[in-house]
Amino acid sequence: MSNSQPTINQTDLMLRVSNINVYYGESHILRNVDLSIPSGQMVCLIGRNGVGKTTFLKTIMGLLKSRTGEIFFQDRPISKLTPDKRARMGIGYVPQGREIIPRVSVKDNLLLGLEAQPKGRKGNESIPEEIFELFPVLKTMLSRMGGDLSGGQQQQLAIARALMGKPRLLVLDEPTEGIQPSIIIEIESAVKRIIEATGISVLLVEQHLHFVRQADKYYAMQKGGIVASGSTEELTQEVIQQFLAV
Ligand SMILES: Nc1ncnc2c1ncn2[C@@H]1O[C@H](COP(=O)(O)OP(=O)(O)OP(=O)(O)O)[C@@H](O)[C@H]1O
């Protein structure tokens, strides 16, 4: 084998996280976390409440600092970059609780997502038709206030707003939390269509087994450390019972 032949091609990784340790004050929350997301794949992080999943996503977004380790996005180290720089590089974030601005219209909530494009908003006022193909309900609600939408509609708006930034990686924190089953299926299929249509990668924190199974790969977290990982096709009953609230 020649030296130039790649064994594991790191450039095929959208995100690579290596040896992350995060603290809240003196509480050690994330412990030696390693995780990688191949380009075009969906990876799901599972684990019981309070194990550190949201802390991990916030660390990737730059909202929390890690004491050790490095985060590579498309092979570039990003740990020292601010959250807005990471967003403009192509990491779209849909936080837990959605963070829709309640007294702003659906249209303006969507347009805010343009700030994450590499050159910012720059007077751009257009919403691409693909957004409405993915989430038809939003088209009928453009002039409504964000706060007047149902939980499921707000979740769709939050994902759509993240897509307005044209991310290469979409980070979703429990998108189905508190949402009725019929809408969960809609959100799940929209995420699958996003991946098929755009080839972007997804990092998902999720409790619903059906949604988890849509991912290519899972990582299971316990007490802030990764304790199991593999293909979602190999998710055993034992792993499901241990790490998902089913
Ligand atoms: N701002 C904070 N200050 C101190 N401790 C915190 C803070 N936020 C979270 N924690 C603690 O860090 C731990 C991990 O929380 P985190 O929200 O990351 O867990 P999670 O796995 O996302 O849980 P959930 O599914 O309930 O959101 C928990 O013990 C939590 O109490």
From TrEMBL:
Domain ABC transporter: 15-246
Similarity annotation: Belongs to the ABC transporter superfamily.
Source taxonomy: Bacteria, Bacillati, Cyanobacteriota, Cyanophyceae, Pleurocapsales
Pfam families noted in UniProt: ABC_tran
One GO molecular-function entry: ATP binding
Keywords: Amino-acid transport, ATP-binding, Nucleotide-binding, Transport
Source species: Hyella patelloides LEGE 07179
Stretches of the chain forming a coiled coil according to its record: none
Name listed for the protein in its UniProt record: Urea ABC transporter, ATP-binding protein UrtE
InterPro entries (UniProt xref): AAA+_ATPase (IPR003593), ABC_transporter-like_ATP-bd (IPR003439), ABC_transptr_urea_ATP-bd_UrtE (IPR017780), BCAA_Transport_ATP-bd_LivF (IPR052156), P-loop_NTPase (IPR027417)
GO biological process, one term: L-amino acid transport
Domain of life: Bacteria
